[in-house]
Amino acid sequence: MKPEEYASLLSDAVARNETLAFACSCTIRYSGRAESSLGLGDRIIIIKADGSVLCHQPTGSAPINYMKAGTAHTFRTEKGKIILTSNNLIQKEKIIVTIEKIHFFNSHKLEDGQTISVMGTEDDMSDMIYANPSLIEDGFKPVSQEEQTKYGFIDVLGVDKNGTLTIVECKRYSAELSAVTQLRRYVEKVMVSKGISKVRGILAAPKITENAKKMLEDWGFEFKSISPPKYFEEYDKKQARLDGFG
Amino acid sequence: MKPEEYASLLSDAVARNETLAFACSCTIRYSGRAESSLGLGDRIIIIKADGSVLCHQPTGSAPINYMKAGTAHTFRTEKGKIILTSNNLIQKEKIIVTIEKIHFFNSHKLEDGQTISVMGTEDDMSDMIYANPSLIEDGFKPVSQEEQTKYGFIDVLGVDKNGTLTIVECKRYSAELSAVTQLRRYVEKVMVSKGISKVRGILAAPKITENAKKMLEDWGFEFKSISPPKYFEEYDKKQARLDGFG
DNA sequence: GGGGAGAGATGCCGC
DNA sequence: GCGGCATTTCTCCCC
To answer: What are the pLDDT digits (tens) for A176-193?
Structure first.
């Protein structure tokens, strides 16, 4: 197929609000929040009906170039090459793809009204602690969840068995230095805003790095090893033989 | 085409180490670090030669499900449906895609030896400051870049015109609360490790949020408005009429 | 729309 | 491999 024919084929698919997927040999240039340049090679390019575009190299899971919904796309030809210009006026961003050869192309009108449901997040973790406070320690009583402060959001605010105000910061993965400074920020803010001199800080996570643990202890805070809940995992152990998922 | 034929077509393409791109109506289930479930709808699925897989809904720029390189993929049929099972034993992760209908399919062997070059990053910003220290203030002299400390990496370490040790933390976007706590962590660490009571902290970014500015000032630190450098932007203003990029 | 924080973050680099 | 951290982060939620 001639470049001119491909260009109008691609243009028409975009005009019909279809989702496009094609593989090509191309160079890519981006200018916007940052700037990038990529030499000649094979890539997969996807343009969605909402205008978002993704450029993928043949390896790796992250796109090499991309633009958000609301981007306008035009195809033209120049010296036997197809040139895709993707422009987002609001974000002041632009991608130019100079295509030497198209390996394959397809497009289709896609429909999807579903929303993903995810379990095992940090929210689920704080829900679990709120519902089962002894996970933190005996006598711990949650007072509020997602407490708003000027200096940030507190995951779980509670009182320990001695009546001391206690702030719990949850992390679903290994807690690092930034988790400790985050906790410290909340503790300091609560001490000032409530005029209390003693506030406990607890970092709840599956594990913590060495440096973070040191910094945590330097500040008189505590670590409690807790993992986020996973519901499917339990379910799947029982259902593995029924639905083959496990 | 029959489901069985599609299943072997897809299997063969994976076996030949090609990159696959197909659109289908499907349900998706994920289990691994967390767990997710997605009902029936149209999606684009890409499987790369390195084993990485991406599942995209028809809108939005982020994949709804994905797995990294090293994932094994098998296609089989069950009750007229094609079932893709993607398994990563090392990461203990699994995706199951139950495909009702394939809208289009393509695959191709892709080659790409290029590496992207990005400009306007935080590194470029600290390079710029190191090369042109007066951007911070008159008399500022950088001492080292990317100074390693137990509590993190300092972007630019320098001395001001009065000989006071000064730490500069760069952000390429708007500086928020976490940028202030990061700077504070470095300043405190340097004060302790070098036994100095007076260390200046400067946050260099295009802009800063209201709350971050307050916290910054509460801690006696300073803000300096600096943006990351962009080369194409300048070039393109001059070249706009020559290469059409601008 | 801005701000703050999580994410199945990802990817990079350093030790 | 872990750790610390930037990212064209993206996305969500709340003010």
So the answer is: 999 999 999 999 999 998
Identical topology for domains A3-108 and A122-233: no
One-letter amino acid identity for A164?
A: T
pLDDT at B246: 42
H/E stretch holding A32 reads none
Q: Which of A42, A84, A46 is nearest to B63 (CA)?
A: A46
Please give the average per-residue pLDDT across A59-77, as a whole number.
98
User: A3-108 — its CATH code?
Assistant: 2.70.180.20
Distance separating the N- and C-terminal Cα atoms of chain B:
47
> Residue B100 is which amino acid?
E
CATH of domain A122-233: 3.40.1350.10
Partner B contacted by A193 (CB < 8 A): no
Which residues lie across from B44 on neighbouring strands? Answer: B23, B56
Say if residue B18's pLDDT is above 60. Answer: yes
Looking at residue B49, the DSSP 8-state letter turns out to be: T
Instruction: Tell me what pLDDT residue B234 has.
Output: 55
The two structure tokens encoding residue B244: 């059409």
Domain boundaries along the sequence of chain A: 3-108, 122-233
Cβ within 8 Å, pair B59-A112: yes
Residues contacting A132, CB < 8 A, separation 6+ = none
Q: Do B120 and A35 touch (CB under 8 A)?
A: yes
State the nucleotide closest to B90 in CA–C1' terms: D1
pLDDT digits (tens, 9 = 90+) for B20-61: 999 999 999 999 999 999 999 999 999 999 999 999 999 999
**Residue A172 beta carbon within 7 A of nucleic strand C:** yes
